[in-house]
Amino acid sequence: MSAPSKSLPAKIFAFFSSFGLATSVLVMLLVLTFLGTLEQAEHGLVASQARYFESAFIDRIDIGACWRALGFHAYRDIGNVSLPLYIVPGGYTLMALLFVNLLCGGIVRIRKSPKTIGVIISHFAILFMIAAGAVTHHYAIEGNLNLSEGQTNDEFLSFHDRVIEIEKLQKDPKAKRSVLVIDESKFRDVTAAGNGRTFTSDSLPFDLIIAGWKKNAQPKRDKDGSRTDAVDGYFIQELPQLDEAGAALADEQLASACVAIAKIKNSDEKQTGILWEFAAAPWTVTVGADKYLISLVHRTYKLPFAVRLDETKEEKHPGTERARLFSSKVTKITGDHEEKRFITMNEPVRSEGYAVFQSTFSSGEKEGTGVKSSGFMIVENPADHWPLISCIIVAEGLLLHFLMMLARFIKVNPWKFALGLIAAFNAAFALAMWKLL
Amino acid sequence: MKTLRSVLLALFTLSGFAAAAELPPLDLFRDKEVVETFAAIPLQEAGRIKPLETMANYRLKAMRARESIWLTDTGEMSGKPLIDPATQKPITKEGDKPVKLNAVEWMLMSWFRPDIGKMVPLFKVDNSSAITELGLEAKAKRDQYTFVEIAPARQILMEKMDEYRGIPSAKQTPEQRMIVQLAANFLDYEMIMGHFDFIREPLGKKPEDLPEGVTLPVRLSKSLNTLIAAVRAHNGPPMQIPWFREFAKGALGAMMSGNPEQQYRIFPPAPGDGKVWDGPGVMIFTAINSGKDVTADQLAWLALYEDIYLALPDAAKFKAASKTLLSKIQDAANARGEGKSIGLELQYNHAAYFFYAQWIFLTGFLAVALTWVSPGSRFEKGARLVSWLLLGSATALAVIGVVVRCIIMQRPPITTLFETILFIGSACALLGLIAEAITKRGLGLLVTAIGGTACMFLAIQFEASEAVDTFQQLQAVLITNFWLSTHVPMINLGYAACMVAAVISMIYFVHRICGAFQTGEGDARLMTRVAYGFIAAGLFLSLVGTVLGGIWANYSWGRFWGWDPKENGALMIVLMCLVILHARLGGYIREIGLHCCNLILGCIVIFSWFGVNQLGVGLHAYGFTLGIWPKIYGYWFSQLVLLGYGVFLALNERRVKTLKVESVEEAGLEKSPSL
After folding, report:
1. Cα gap B569→B618, rounded to integer Å
2. Are B72 and B357 in contact (CB under 8 A)?
3. pLDDT exceeding 90 applies to what percent of chain A?
4. What does the pLDDT read at residue B2?
5. Quick one: pLDDT at residue B216?
6. CB contact under 8 A, B547 and A394
7. Segment among A23-27, A225-229, A392-396, B114-118 with least mean pLDDT
8. Closest-CA residue in chain A for B411?
9. Beta carbons within 8 Å of B341's beta carbon, 6+ residues apart
10. Chain A residues with CB-CB distance to B579 below 8 A
11. Which residues in chain B are contacts of A346 at CB distance < 8 A?
C-alpha cells in the first residue's frame, strides 16, 4: 500500500527540514571554509571573506592560489588557474539555508521527548548564534582611532570600508560640516579607464564621474607624456597586492585610487583629478566662487563622546622587545563632563553602546616624533553579548544530550548522571571565572 | 651599539688560548659537584629566569639537535676518542671508553677548554650541498662538522648569510636555509668559546698605549671605569685606540650571542632596580654607550665572575669560587622574589618526563600486542594487566610533565604549538584509558598506546627541530589566565577527542584488512559506538571551545569572529562533526561510512592543528615550522589509502547485498525482514 502523496507545502517543509539538506549545507559550508582559508594566503582576509563567507554566490575559485597555499607548487607549479562559478551558494546563502533548516527540522519537526530536549536546546542556541551573526554583519560598525598623548577626537575610521567624500568648503570655519558620501561598493567595479560611472546630486553644481578604480595603486609621473590616461602629468600605476614572499598584503596596507571627473552642470566644463587613499590633501573642484574638497578615504564614524589620551605605556618582557602589556589612561568627554577611564589589553572600556579596545601602541621612535600614541579599536554591535548567551545555552544543551547518551551506554540513570556532571561542569567554570577573571 | 656589534661580529676571530701547561684538566668540568653548581646558576634569557642548564641544553640542541655530545672524531659513541691537546692523550674514561658530555659539561668545556671545543664535531649539517657551496670538502649527505673544519670558510659564510637573510624564509632554498643556520651557530659558538676572553686577556696579548693606572695583567673589575673613561676621552672613532678592538671583542664574547634576547645575563640588580638583569658583556657595552660609570655593585659582580676563571687550574679554588657565585646570584634573585622555579625546572630537565613516557607508551603498545596472541587465555589477562600498568604509568608521567610545566610558568598548560602536542598526547592517552575502563575490550588501551607514542615522539622531534626554549613568554594580548585555562584547553581537548575517533577508525580498517571481523559484528559495532561517542565529545568540546574563543576575542579586542585561518580550522572540525552526526541520523552513512568520515575528520584536525600555521596569515599564525607540509601530506596520504579501502569495502558490501536480494527474488521467495 503506497503512502498518501504529500501536498506541495508539506513537500517544501519536508525538504527544508530534512537531514539531507542539513548534511548538504554543512558539507558545502565545510568546503567553502576550507577554500576561503586557503585563498587568504594570496588574496588576504578581507577579499576571501567577501568572496566566500559574506557572498550570496561564489563567482570563482582560485585553484592556483589554493594549490600554492597547500605547498603543492614545490612539486608542480600549475600557475594561475581559476574555476569560474555562478550558481554555487556563498556563505550568506548557506547560513540562511541552515537557519531555515534548523528552524524547520531542529525545532519544529524534531520528535519532542526527554531524549531530544538537549538537542532542541542546542538547535535553539545555534539559531540564536546565526541571528547574532546576521545582526553583527548588517548593523555592527567597527573602526580605528589613533590618538597621540594629549590628543582628543570624537571620530573613528572604518578598517575596511572606503568612500569618496565630497565636502563644500565653508567660509565660516565654525559652520556645521556637511559631507556627501559615495560608498566604495558603488564604484569598485569601474576598473576600466573609459567612460566611468556618473554620480549626481541636486546639492552639487557638478556631476562626478569615477573611472579606472584600482585596489592598490599609486600616482606616478608620466615622464615622457606617452600615457593617454594621464591627469595633470600623473597616471595611476597599479601595485601588486602580494608582498615579496608572495603573501597577501593586509587590507590596511592597500591604497586604492581612481580618476575623478567633475562635469559642471549646464556647461561643457570638466575638471579631472586623481583620488588616492594616501593623498596628503583632497582634490579641489572650483565652481564659480565655491570650492569642493573630494577625497577617497576610509569611512568616518562619529562617537557620541570624545576621547582624550592622557597617558599611554608599554611594558616589555625583561631583556626582550616582546610586549607584555599596553595600557592607556583616557578621559571620556561628553559636553562639559569629563570621566577618567583606564584601558588595557583584554580590558576595554564600554560606554553608550560602544566598546573601546586597546589595539596598538607606538613609542613615536619610528615616526621620529617621540610622542607616544595608542591605537584603539572601536566597536558598536547591537548583538555584542548574544554569542555569550548562545554559548552558555548550546553548552548546556549538548552536555545534557551527550551525557544522557553516555549514561545509557554505561547503563546508569541518565538524568542523575547528566545533571550531576552538568552541575560539576558549571561549578568548575564558575570557579575559573571567580579565581581567574 | 647595534652597528658596533655588527662590525665586531664580522671581525671576531678566536683569540689564542692559554698555554697548554695552564690548561685545567677536562675531568674538572665533568665533576658532578662542578656541573651541578653551574647547572643551577639562575640567568635571565628571553624574558624569563631559568637555570643555566636550560640555556646550555638549547644552545647545544640548536647546533647538534641533541642534548649531549661524544668527544670522538665523529661525535658519536662509535668514533675514535679525540686527543687532548694539553696532554696529547686520548680523551677517555675508565676502560678506555669515549667520553660523553651533557649540555652543561659541553658548555664548561667550550668556556674553559676551547682548544678541545673547536675539535668536536658539533655542527649538524643536513645538506652537504651547503658545505660544497662554502668551498669546503663535504662529508656524507648528513654529517657533523667541527669548528676547525668550518673556520677556513668563515668569510664566505658571513657573506652568504648576509645575502640569504634578505630572502624571505619561505622562498629560501634548503641550502640557503642551511647556510644561514650554520652561520648563526658558528658565530654563536665562536662567542661561547671566547666567553672568558674578557678575563683571560681583556685587551689582547700585548696591549699598547694603556691608560694611566691600568697595569698588566688587566682585570676589568678594577680597571673598567678607567678604560671606559679613556674611550670617552678619545677624539675620534674608538677603533683607533690600539687595545679597543680586543676589549670590545672580549665584551662581545662575554655576551655569548648575537641575538639580543639571548645575551648572557646572570647578575640580578638590587630589588627595585628595574627588571632587566645584567651580564658581563652587557655591562661593558652599556658603559661604552651610555657614558655612565659602572657602579661598585656591578664591579663586585664582575670580580666574582673573574674569580672563577682566575681560580683555575686549582680545582678546589675553582669549586669554591663557583659555589660563591651561585649562592650570591641565588640570594640576589631571592631578594627580588625571582628564580623560585629554578629547582623545579632542573628537576623537570632531569626527569625527562616525555622521553620516558614515549618509551613506556611504546612498551605498553607491545604489551597490548601480546594480548592478541592467545585471546581468552590467562596469558591475555596477564598481558592486559601489564598493558594497563604500563600505559597508566606513561599517561601519568605525561600528565605530570604537563602539570610541572604549568607550575614552572605559573600559567595554564597551552601557550605554544609544542605544548599543544604534549597536551593533546596526554589527553588522547587519558581518553583512551577512560574508554577502556568503560568498554574493557582492549580498544582503549590500543588507542592510548598509539596516541601516546605518536604524540610524545612528535613532541620530542618538534623540540629538537625547533631548538628554542619551550617555555616561552606570551604576547601581551594572550596574558589572561581565565581564557587560557578555558578556551585553549577545551579546543585542544576537542582536537584530542576527534583524533581518538580517527584512530579508532584507523584501527577498524586495519582489523577489516586483517579480516578480524565483518560489518555489524560485536567488535565492529563496539568500535563504531565508541567512535561515535568521541565524535559527540569532539563536537561538544570543539563547538564550545571555538565559541569561547570568539567570546574572548569579542570581549578583549572587539570582534567575535574574524575568519582567521585558525578559527576556520576549528570551525571545519565542528562542521565535520556535525556532518557525521547528521549524516548518520539521516541514514546516509552507517558503520563503514562513519569510519570513512572519521578519517576525513582526522585529516581536518591535522590541517587545523599544523597546516593553517603554514599559511603565514592571520592573528593565530604562530608555530610556523619549515618542512612540515611533507609530513602532513604523509598523514593525508595514509588516510586516503584507508579511505579508498573503506569505499571499496562499502561498494563491495552493497554489491553482495544486491546479489543476495536478487537471488532471493529469483528463488520466488519474499524478502525476509532480516535482510
Report:
1. 12
2. no
3. 72
4. 45
5. 83
6. yes
7. A225-229
8. A436
9. B49, B407, B408, B409, B410
10. 23, 26-27, 30
11. 477, 479-480, 483, 555-557
Of B479, B550, B564, the CB nearest to A324: B479
In chain A, the residue whose alpha carbon lies closest to the alpha carbon of B43 is A319
Best mutation target, A17, A18, A26, to test chain B (most B CBs within 10 A) = A26
Q: Do A346 and B477 count as a contact with CB atoms less than 8 A apart?
A: yes
Look up the pTM and report it.
Answer: 0.89
Higher-confidence residue: A407 or A243?
A407
Q: Are B572 and A133 in contact (CB < 8 Å)?
A: no
pLDDT at A235 over 50: yes
- Give residues with Cβ within 8 angstroms of B442, minimum separation 6: B368, B371, B384, B387, B436
pLDDT of the residue at B672: 42
Give the 3-state secondary structure of residue A84. strand
Mean pLDDT over the full length of chain B? 90
Q: What's the CA gap between B54 and B4, in Å, rounded?
A: 29
**Separation CA A150–CA B551 (nearest Å):** 32
- What is d(CA B259, CA B249) in angstroms, rounded to the nearest whole number? 16
Q: What one-character DSSP code corresponds to residue B48?
A: E
Q: What are phi and psi of A288, to 5 degrees?
A: 60, -125
Give how far B534 is from chain A: nearest CA, Å.
Answer: 10
For residues A422 and B595, is the Cβ–Cβ distance under 8 A?
A: no
- Gap from B337 CA to chain A (nearest CA, Å): 15
pLDDT at A225: 85
Which residue type is seen at A303? L
CA distance B407 to B344: 9
Chain center to CA of A36: 15
Q: What pLDDT does B4 receive?
A: 47
CA–CA distance, B249 with B606 (Å, rounded to integer): 48
Residue A60's closest CA among A79, A37, A32, A41? A32
Parse chain B into domains and list their residue ranges.
Answer: 2-198, 200-335, 474-675
Distance from CA of B180 to the nearest CA of A (A): 17
Give chain A's end-to-end CA distance (angstroms, integer): 64
Cα separation, B582 vs B576, whole angstroms: 10
- For the residues of B462-522, what is the DSSP string, one character each? HHHHH-S-SSPPPPGGG--HHHHHHHHHHHHHHHHHHHHHHHHHHHHHHHHHTT---TTSH
